[in-house]
């Protein structure tokens, strides 16, 4: 599975209300899964870091950037 497919699947799973973006509560769940033991303490700063357009949600492109950045 390539990165784009993985991000698409992550996005589909965590965009629970299927509105095309990941809101804060959905983001908290995503971070909890991805970071596990680091969890909520870093969630707020990570959200702000990757919400580039400051619309209080994470787009698929922003999620892709986050996954790449956190994986490296």
Any descriptors?
72 residues, 67% helix, Recoverin, domain 1, mainly alpha, globular
Strand and helix map with partners:
Blueprint: H1 3-14, H2 24-35, H3 39-50, H4 60-71
Domain EF-hand: 2-37, 38-72
GO molecular function, one term: calcium ion binding
Organism: Thalassotalea agarivorans (Thalassomonas agarivorans)
Description:
- One of its GO terms (molecular function) is calcium ion binding.
- This is EF hand.
- By secondary structure, the chain is mainly alpha-helical.
- 67% of the residues lie in helices and 0% in strands.
- The chain has four helices and no strands.
- It has helices at residues 3-14, 24-35, 39-50, 60-71.
- α1 packs across α4 and α2 (24-35) crosses α3.
- The radius of gyration is 11 Å and the shape is globular.
- The model has no long low-confidence stretch (mean pLDDT 85).
Q: What's the name of the CATH homologous superfamily?
A: EF-hand
The helix/strand class is mainly alpha
Q: What do we call the CATH topology?
A: Recoverin, domain 1
> Could you give the distance between the termini?
17 Å
Please state roughly what percent of the residues sit in beta strands, choosing from under 5%, 5-15%, 15-25%, 25-35%, 35-45% or over 45%.
under 5%
Helical proportion? Answer: 55-70%
The tally of beta strands, per DSSP, is: 0
CATH class group: Mainly Alpha
H/E element sequence: HHHH
Provide mean pLDDT, rounded. Answer: 85
Domain count, please report it.
Answer: 1
């Amino acid at each position: 599975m390539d990165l784009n497919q993985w991000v698409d699947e992550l996005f589909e799973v965590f965009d629970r209300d299927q509105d095309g973006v990941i809101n804060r509560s959905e983001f908290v769940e995503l971070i909890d899964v991805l970071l596990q033991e680091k969890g909520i303490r870093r969630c707020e700063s990570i959200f702000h870091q990757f919400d580039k357009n400051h619309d209080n949600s994470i787009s698929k492109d922003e999620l892709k950037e986050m996954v790449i950045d956190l994986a490296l």
